[in-house]
TrEMBL record:
InterPro entries with a match to the protein in the record: YkvI-like (IPR038728)
UniProt entry tagged with the keyword Kinase: no
Protein name: Membrane protein YkvI
Keywords of the record: Membrane, Transmembrane, Transmembrane helix
Highest taxon above the source species: Bacteria
Keyword hit for Transmembrane helix: yes
Record-linked PANTHER family: CONSERVED MEMBRANE PROTEIN (PTHR37814), MEMBRANE PROTEIN (PTHR37814:SF1)
Membrane-spanning ranges: 42-65, 85-109, 115-132, 139-160, 180-202, 214-236, 260-284, 296-315, 321-338
Amino acid sequence: MKQWAMSIQVALVFIGTVVGAGFASGREVMQFFTRFGYWGPYLIIVSTMFFVWIGAKVMLLSAEIKAKSYEDLNKHLFGERGGRWISHIMLFVLLGVNAVMLAGAGSVFSEQLNLGYQTGLIVTMFACFMLLRKGMNAILAINTIVVPMMIIFSIFLVYKTLQNPLTDQWLRAPNELSPWAAWLSPFLYAAFNLSMSQAVLVPLGSTIGDRRSLLRGAWIGGIGIGVLLLAGHFALASRMPGIAQFDIPMGGIARELGTWLHWVYVLLIFMEIFTTLVADIYGLTLQLHVRTKASPWMLTAVLLLFCFLAGQFGFGKLLSALYPMFGMLSLGWLFLIGRDRALTNNSPKPPNLQA
């Protein structure tokens, strides 16, 4: 029972780390899957396979080598020099992603709560700074609460969506975009999110340490991410193309379900953005602390200030410009870690679609 409880915690942190601003708001799902029409569900299945396979591999290897940060893992996989360069690139990318997370929180405040974009940035920064003083235990605790609520509400959203007689129009719509763009999309999405999740999955694997708990957690978490992707895709597809105009399209859908459900979902969107921001800033703080030996609280404050300044560009612009570019940068990392033989005897096999 203790191992199962640990596995579920691992799965919830895995899901909570991936389900950030782009995912929870619906922008990411639309960008990588829904806009490709009837191909969307098949692309999601491909991404889910990679989440299970590579997510497990990262955590198992981190536990095996007792990595303190993602740079330790990259040096082990790609050598001292190669690992350092990859970690430099990831540091830049993670800073951009965290800026998107903070901007997403600002958009929730302005678009859904009418409280002002800058207010959202400042409130989120302060809450993140205070929570991070408690370390990995705080990340485990907050995901244990938020992720199950998000899963339940997403399933409910799909149920309500399926009652709409026009639900399957976009799902049956022919894809007018390039087939190459469509089938590259799940690889970009998985590569981007998995490389970014290193900041949390590496210390998580080292902290948990138990191989069975980590492997089971990777399967539960990876499949959970796939289920949430499908839920978001079906909900968005039923309202395409009109819903694409919103910065927070899932919030627009929740508004149709009534006042109380809208407020609940807006809170969940914000909390999912917040959990990912907290997890990523934690990983970056660990990484910079190893390099600089500076005070963790000071590093956290500097990182949040950078995100605040970058967040002035706005959520929609940052996500659309940065995420596809970061996905391309992450493809190389996904290929290298996928072919690495360090875990030949221990790593899980890629999920079999026929199974």
